[in-house]
Amino acid sequence: LQREHPKKLQAHTMQRTIVRGGKAAANMVSSKRTYIRPAYNLAKKIMPKISDTEAAALSSGTISWDQDLFSGDLALKKLVDTYDSKLTAEEQSFLDNETEVLCEMLDQHQIEKEQNLSPEVWQFIREKKFFGMVMPKKWGGLGFSGHGHAVVIEKIGGRSPAAATTIAVPNSLGPGELLNHYGTPEQQQYYLPRLAHGIDIPCFGLTGPASGSDAASMRDEGIVVKENGVLGMRVTFSKRYITLAPVATVVGLAFKLADPNKLLTTGKEGITVALLPTQANPICPNGIPGLRTGERHNPLDIGFMNGTVQGESVFIPMSAVIGGEERCGFGWNMLMECLGEGRGISLPAGAVAAARLCTMAVGGYARVRKQFKVPIAEMEGVQEKLSNIGMYTYQVVAAQAMFDAVLANGEKPPVLSAIMKHECTEKGRKATNDGMDVMGGAGISRGPMNFLAPVYISTPVSITVEGANALTRSLIIYGQGLTRSHPHLLHMIKAIQDGDNQEGFNKELTNVIKHAFTNMGRSVTRGLAVQVVPKGNDISGYYEAQMSRLSANFAFCADVGLTMGGGIKTAEFLSGRYADILSNLYMGYSCLWYYEKNKHVEGLDKVLDMAMADHCFKIQEAIFGISSNFPIPLMGPVMRAFTFPRGREYAEASDKMRRAVSQSITNPSEVRALLSQNVFVSKDEKNRVNQISRAVSLACEADGYLAACRRAKRQPTAEEQKVIDEAEVLRELIIQVDAFDTIAGQNHKGEWMKATWTADAVEGAQQSAAQ
Predict the structure, then answer these.
(1) Strands 221-227 and 306-317
(2) Are 131 and 163 in contact, with CB atoms under 8 Å apart?
(3) Which of 365, 516, 554, 766 has the most beta carbons within 10 angstroms of its beta carbon?
(4) Distance from C-alpha of 650 to C-alpha of 609, rounded to nearest angstrom
(5) Residues whose CB falls within 8 Å of the CB of residue 689, separated by 6 or more in sequence, listed in order
(6) Distant-in-sequence, close-in-space partners of 577: CB < 8 Å, separation ≥ 6
(7) Predicted structure pTM score
(8) How far is it, in rounded angstroms, from Cα 371 to Cα 377?
């Protein structure tokens, strides 16, 4: 080892020294109680207190391999061996048949004009159980996995954002999951088959005027009452932004419940969830008089149903509470347990749909469209945008496949769900923005030919809902991730909140100190080790070493961040940067895992190279941002010294990387085929995506013949000319945009557009006014 890898030996020796020092420091802390009491008292002051709603969030779901990131020790082989995502035969059949039929029925341009799905589409969606995809088979649902759910939404999303949103909500945000897990037998037997078969249309009312991302601050309140011998609640509520509310037949409602007269025999006060039918049924024989739905919002003219749910002092019988009286006060726990998973599936699926569409259709358009007699795909300014599209697509596809595999493994990680929501929707937005830049005028001219504008316009919806991205990044990802996924922090906080549990605090403080010194050692030694790891032909091995180093850097910086105590929760500039590191580590490992699963795809290593360079650079910049702005003196320089003592080491993607990725998505290739999977291509030859899908290979072949003819200074053969002519016919069709005689039914050449004044009259009036 000394002869062949002296730097590795030096790093190994340094790590052992540092770890020994950390153990010695920890032992000193353990043995001297005189030092513990002041530390314990200080910790009680600075450590964050956990509220009931935070405790519910922290106890929901499970921890996945995000815990390994906080430990700074994650092996790629563990991910490859543990996780896999595949469709079942039933899911594949549904994707190839019912979903294909539905996509062919959809016309997003017409949906936007009508501001609704067509009656035929509504009926098909409901009868074919699109609303019951994740519902267990025993209740009449399809019993799909998270992956099956995701790919269906993904395929529909590239065709019609309105239809994708309509179908996604009952499968992720609707009351079906709550009923399946917590409903009474009577509620389950009545509602679940009706929801699975599309008889009932569900919505869920959580957001109100004063409670958006801060849902726990809702003003909707109810009081337990007993009227005419029936135990129930009088509730006043005002909900908004509720998807499907205008057409819903059952409304899930979250509200704060109080019991001043002590009428509850079980359950407790607190956030409660009830299911309100819009018509009387066996669960609520008298219905819910005073429940108001039907008013619509108009989210960016996309055309899906969204509106309000309101009521003043509405009587809700106890039979309407999901789970019955014993579940009163447990609504927040129920919501955190059931709805977090959908956040990591439906919204990311829409982002994957947007990115894949850009790779397939915008990449193809760039190959077909010519300026200055060359395809715009060959222009470096355009290649910069196209390479971003290819990179973003790979990143979100990899992340989606990984998260779906985590769910298939029986895990329900809320931290990874939040990362998925934020990272995928942001990258979907960036891919779509770059796609619009490439499309130019064809992207902004609305009409049936424009395949990209509907996706572009709908992107802000996914950014906003289920926790606005700005707050998801700065508050949820790291705030929840640190407390939940750090191996010792939550135990330390609990020891403090238990009261005078100095012994428990002593134990956890010792563990934290050991953990910090271990991560410091890993941070230094791996930082040295990566200096001797060449990229060579093993692109995956090279970046695995970088991720291992950066995860150790992150774990050490996270431990240093504990010195801020509860202050880290409100230092959102810093917590946002910590979230960037955690998110890019998840995305980076997902990219490596996906590559290992698909390394047979020729040219995929070029895309991986650019994607990983992007993640490494962003992690580096976030660490520099934290260390430069850390508020406790000397802690910032300490972070820098043990993470990047030699300064910045990672750079953004090179021009060579960008050129390779751009070429891979604008020419017929295995990479283009992989990243364009599941994009719906209509059988209608007048459809623009259909035309582009046929034109790419033809255009490449025709341009090859023309180049050969120029080099040989000859005319094309008859067979070559036939291909060239076919390509030109398609090219001419593809570059056209929609034009209308009138828009919105207005005659833009009406009599009112004719001038009724003369220049002389206007000038005379102006001169008179001046005098």
Answers:
(1) unpaired
(2) no
(3) 365
(4) 13
(5) 357, 360, 361, 451, 679, 680, 681, 682
(6) 622, 623, 625, 626
(7) 0.91
(8) 10
Angle 534-605-692 from CA coordinates, rounded to 5°? 155
Read out DSSP for 39-64?
A: HHHHHHHHSPPPPHHHHHHHHSS---
The answer on pLDDT for 97 being more than 60 is yes
Structure tokens belonging to residue 517: 């010194």
Mean pLDDT across the stretch 747-763?
84
Find which of 28-37, 92-101, 405-414 is predicted with most confidence, using mean pLDDT: 92-101
CB contact at 8 A, 266 and 318: no
Question: Residue 263 corresponds to which amino acid?
Answer: L
Question: If you average pLDDT over residues 351-368, what whole number do you get?
Answer: 98
Backbone angle region of 546, left / alpha / beta, with phi > 0 → left and psi within -120 to 50 → alpha: alpha
Q: In the predicted model, what is the mean pLDDT of residues 611-623? A: 98
Q: Can you say how many angstroms the Cα of residue 570 is from the centroid of all Cα atoms in its chain?
A: 23
Q: In terms of residues, how long is the chain?
A: 771
Q: Decide if 145 contacts 138 (C-beta within 8 A).
A: no
Residue linked to tokens 């219905």: 287
CA dihedral of residues 653, 658, 660, 666 (deg, nearest 10): 150
To which residue do tokens 């996270």 refer?
558
How many C-beta neighbours within 10 Å does residue 217 have? 12
Q: What φ, ψ does residue 225 adopt, rounded to 5°?
A: -140, 165
Please state which of the ranges 493-502, 695-704, 746-755 shows the lowest mean pLDDT.
493-502
pLDDT single digits (tens) 270-317? 999 999 999 999 999 999 999 999 899 999 999 999 999 999 999 999
CA distances from 545 to 31, 80, 678 (A): 38, 16, 33
The answer to whether residues 217 and 287 touch, using CB atoms and an 8 Å cutoff, is: no
Degrees, nearest 5: CA angle 732-735-738: 115
How many angstroms separate the CA atoms of 455 and 98, rounded?
22
Amino acid letter for position 262 = K
CB 123 within 8 A of CB 199: no
Pairing label, strands 374-375, 292-296:
unpaired
299 DSSP assignment: S
544 is a catalytic site residue: no
CB atoms within 10 A of CB 24: 11
- For residue 360, the model assigns a pLDDT of 98
pLDDT grade, residue 495 (50/70/90)?
low
Confidence of residue 329 (pLDDT cuts 50, 70, 90): very high
Q: How far does Cα 446 stand from its chain's mean position?
A: 27
Burial group, residue 487, by CB count within 10 angstroms (0-12, 13-18, 19+): middle
C-alpha closest to that of 305 among 576, 116, 49: 116
Token pair of 561 as six digits: 């961040």
Query: CB 62: neighbour CB atoms within 10 A?
Result: 14
Q: How confident is the model at residue 340 (pLDDT cuts 50, 70, 90)?
A: low
Please name every residue paired with 273 in a beta bridge, in sequence order, or none if there are none.
254
Tokens of 225: 């009452």
Burial of 477 (0-12, 13-18, 19+ CB in 10 A): buried
User: What span, in angstroms and rounded, lies between the C-alpha atoms of 630 and 632?
Assistant: 6
Contact 677, 356 (CB under 8 A): yes
User: How many CB atoms neighbour CB 563 within 10 A?
Assistant: 14
Q: Which of 91, 325, 378, 466 is catalytic?
A: 466
Are 355 and 396 spatial neighbours (Cβ–Cβ below 8 Å)? Answer: yes
Contact 305, 245 (CB under 8 A): yes
**Average pLDDT rounded to a whole number, residues 736-749:** 87
pLDDT range class, residue 194, cuts 50, 70, 90: very high
Task: Note the pLDDT of residue 713.
Answer: 94
Query: If you ran DSSP here, which 8-state letter would residue 370 be given?
Result: E
Q: How far apart are CA 75 and CA 751, in angstroms?
A: 74
Other C-beta atoms lying within 10 Å of the C-beta of residue 301: 14
Q: What percent of the chain lies above the pLDDT cut of 70?
A: 89
Which amino acid, 154?
A: E
